[in-house]
Amino acid sequence: MTIPPIEASQRIREICTLAPIVPVLVIEDVATARPLAEALVAGGLPSLEVTLRTPAALEAIRAMSDITGGHVGAGTLITPEDVRAAKAAGASFGVSPGATDELLAACEAENLPLLPGAATASEAMRLLARGYDMLKFFPAEASGGAPALKAIGAPLPQISFCPTGGVSPSNAGSYLALANVLCAGGSWVAPKDLIIAGDWAGIEALARDAAQLRKGA
Question: Which parts pass through the membrane (predicted)?
């Protein structure tokens, strides 16, 4: 039984409304995964995206999947094999930089709610026609930033976005102020140096600051 795209988008919407920022995580050492997740959730960021860019990523998802109050997703889903591996590792949702018919079909077949990427009105319209109305705007800054996303929202008000790519504390507020933005994805809340140092209190503090970002901030 496949998950209908409209139902998948509703689940993604629920995940995206839990906090204004979704941490985008690149995990090199699986031993850091659980304390990292605990620090981010404690700081008020329960929705976590672990990118499949490192050999440790799937094991990291597995280690983080049962964190109390956390929702762990797999990012950088490119192929159906990625989808199946992410689901087997315990991911509760997926994120992709773009979308192909094969990727969408795999997520639907695996009952893995997907936040598919789109950077243009045509891409967004194509996904909407399939039933997806909650999308990732990527790469956000390189695609024109908040002004571009605002412009896309004018003719397509039924689509909501999570902008990711170049989002930082200095520009997150401009995205969150948009009517068609539910949250934004950012990596600054889990900097590599703090992860290597095991500075979980420092990461929790960054998460707490990010969790205070609100629309119009």
Answer: none
Choosing from 49, 108, 110, 204, the catalytic residue is: 49
pLDDT in tens, 158-186: 999 999 999 999 999 999 999 999 999 99
pLDDT of residue 216: 45
Q: What is the DSSP string of 178-215?
A: STTBS-EEESTTS-HHHHHHT-HHHHHHHHHHHHT--T
Unique residue bearing structure tokens 């079909």: 105
Domain extents for the chain? 5-211
Catalytic one among 108, 110, 136, 204?
136
Q: How far is CA 35 from CA 127, 199, 204, 209, in A?
A: 36, 10, 10, 18
Active site residue 192: no
Read off the pLDDT of residues 51-62 as tens digits, 9 standing for 90 and up.
Answer: 999 999 999 999
Can 215 be counted among the known catalytic residues? no
